[in-house]
Amino acid sequence: MRRRRGGRRQLLLSLVALAVLVWWQVTQAGPDGGTDGASGSASDAGARADAPGAAQAGWQVTQVIDGDTIEVSRDGVVERVRLLGIDTPERDQCGYAEATALAADLVTGREVTLVVGSSDDRDRYERLLRFVEVSVDGVVVDVGLRQLEAGLAAEVYDSRTGYARHDREEAYIAADEAAADVCPDLREH
Description:
By secondary structure, the protein is of the alpha+beta class. It has helices spanning 2-28, 96-107, 143-149, 169-178, and strands at 55-66, 69-74, 77-83, 86-87, 111-115, 128-136, 139-142, 154-155. Strand 6 (128-136) and strand 7 (139-142) form a beta hairpin. Helix 3 packs parallel to helix 4 (169-178).
């Protein structure tokens, strides 16, 4: 009899341990299945995926900072996002107002998808580094590519300048080379 009671006790302890393990796994899972415990950053809550090309949809644009930087929010997380692969004019430079206006026209008040495209998750200002896509009249638009096509951005931060190659590099270079020169010094980075 004692042996049986010990077996029941061991079974009960095993079931309790299993229940605790399942509870812990469920409470540690974030909205994307990853963890968002105390050791994680805001980007762990869904903005970062492991592989380039991975996308996180459903980010609401809350502010357009300039032609290549926006602010987004999702599930209580607010992030500044720097568009990958392009550089638009800074304040007081030729094309600044136009690039900022184009970005605002494309994304203000809309949900965007953030697409991982770099081995670096953030820049030196702690902005997320992402390609940004938005649906405009049912068509998915790459915001950075649109800036390049309009001649309001320069294609930079690619394998030609010592950065990691990104999967949109060829299309970005082609758009940059084909675009009209809105501002003569835009591509002198």
